[in-house]
Amino acid sequence: MRRKIVAGNWKMNKTPSEAKALAAEIAATLGSEPCAVEVVVCPPAIDLPAVSAVLAGTQIGFGAQNMYHEPKGAFTGETAAPMLVDLGAKYVILGHSERRTYFKETDADVNKKTKAALAAGLTPIVCVGETLEERDAGKTGDVVAGQVRGSLADLGADLVKVVIAYEPVWAIGTGRTATPEQAQEVDALIRKTLADMGGADVAEKVRIQYGGSMKPENAKELMAKPDIDGGLIGGAALKADSFAGIIAAAAAAK
Ligand code: PEP
């Protein structure tokens, strides 16, 4: 049985003081009753020290939205995995479509980062997903399977530690959510690809999220699908009540 994982991607929103307040509100809203769902927030890197202090001792994990693949050195402006670990981060989002589009990250870049994250003990949340043009051209399966194979190449036994987020680019921040059937179809295809790469046992254990305009109103139906093991949430993660609503939906969708 895979434990559902709901992660908030705050993107480039919230100053350190705003992030501190939001993290505190989310922690207060969730309370201290053990949660059936693994809950993660990913604020901007500069907010991480403040969020780390607020979330210490809570059941909410936190992580970054990106990192560099080298552990240290002359790479001006970058953040390394050991720096995140030192702050108590346990996760890092990698290969988000905004990074692939605006910062030209390739599957090979994501693969290097994924290996570095795993080597440092972080759980990578690796994002894949097709554009509308690719979907309309009937290329969704090839595109997504290719991203999974490229981004997660040569991980060996560590493949099982990765979380994958299927995020159709056309659904991110658009208010246009994939139907539960569309999301399930691609999450199942990702699981089949993982089985080809690392065997059926590994594929059964890897958590595969859906992301793209998920909200409390549509979350339960999406996460009730057999291959959807949680959500990566953008806009709705910026308000404690909507984020908590999605977590409650994930718990109810089991
Ligand atoms: C995201 O950016 O990962 C995302 C899913 O955004 P939104 O929920 O706003 O579509």
> How far apart are the first and last residues' alpha carbons, in Å?
10 Å
Portion in beta strands? 5-15%
User: Gyration radius, to the nearest Å?
Assistant: 17 Å
What about the largest sheet?
8 strands, parallel, barrel
If classified by CATH, what would the architecture be?
A: Alpha-Beta Barrel
Which ligands, by name, code or SMILES, are bound?
phosphoenolpyruvate
CATH superfamily: Aldolase class I
CATH topology: TIM Barrel
- In round numbers, the mean pLDDT is 97
Please estimate the helix content. 40-55%
Notes on the structure:
This protein is an alpha/beta fold and 254 residues long. It has a single domain (5-252), classed as Aldolase class I (TIM Barrel, Alpha-Beta Barrel). 44% of the residues lie in helices and 15% in strands. The protein has eleven helices and eight strands. An eight-stranded parallel beta barrel has the order 1-2-3-4-5-6-7-8, surrounded by six helices. Helix 1 packs parallel to helix 11 (240-252). The longest helix is centred in the last third of the chain and has 19 residues, at 180-198. The chain is globular. The protein starts with a strand and ends with a helix. 44% of the residues are buried. The mean pLDDT is 97. The protein binds phosphoenolpyruvate. Phosphoenolpyruvate (PEP) is lined by residues 9, 167, 172-173, 211-214, 232-236.
